Amino acid sequence: MHIQTSRLGFRICATLLGIGYGIVGVYVIGQSSIAPSPELSGRAFWMGVTFIIASVVSISVTWLVSDLSNIWCLPPRKTKPKREK
User: Fold this and answer.
1) What CA–CA distance (Å, rounded) separates 6 from 66?
2) Res 1: pLDDT
3) Burial state string for 3-24 with b = 16 or more CB within 10 A and e = fewer than 16
4) How far apart are CA 22 and CA 14, in angstroms?
5) Would you list the domain boundaries of the chain?
6) Which of 21, 4, 2, 1 minimizes the C-alpha distance to 62?
7) DSSP symbols for 19-57
8) In the chain, count of helices (H) and strands (E)?
9) What 3-state class would DSSP assign to 82?
10) In this predicted model, which residue has the larger pLDDT, 52 or 83?
11) pLDDT of residue 81
12) I need a surface site. Which of 7, 28, 30, 58 has the fewest CB within 10 A?
């Protein structure tokens, strides 16, 4: 495995998104103990675990894949409006 350094700004922004997923996951796991019912507590815990897994996957994919065009979708290109004659 090789860490990619092309499109550095895009990779940093995607990493920040992954860190955000991780922060939400840790927060949800921390708050799952004060849920009003055991069922909600379990759901919150596993939602937090899912967010942490998404965080790890998104950060690792962002830095290890050379071509990000099929993973993190770029917005479509804007076309110039046609002039009427």
Assistant:
1) 8
2) 66
3) eeeebeeebeebeeebeebbeb
4) 13
5) 8-64
6) 4
7) HHHHHHHHHHHHHGGG-SSHHHHHHHHHHHHHHHHHHHH
8) 2, 0
9) coil
10) 52
11) 72
12) 30
Q: Is 83 exposed, middle or buried (0-12, 13-18, 19+ CB in 10 A)?
A: exposed
Residue 63 exposure: Cα atoms within 13 Å on the Cβ side:
13
Contacts of 65 (CB under 8 A, 6+ apart): 4, 71
CA atoms within 13 A on the CB side of 72: 20
pLDDT tens profile 23-81? 999 999 999 999 899 999 999 999 999 999 999 999 998 888 877 766 666 666 777 77
The answer to whether the CB of 71 falls within 8 A of the CB of 17 is: no
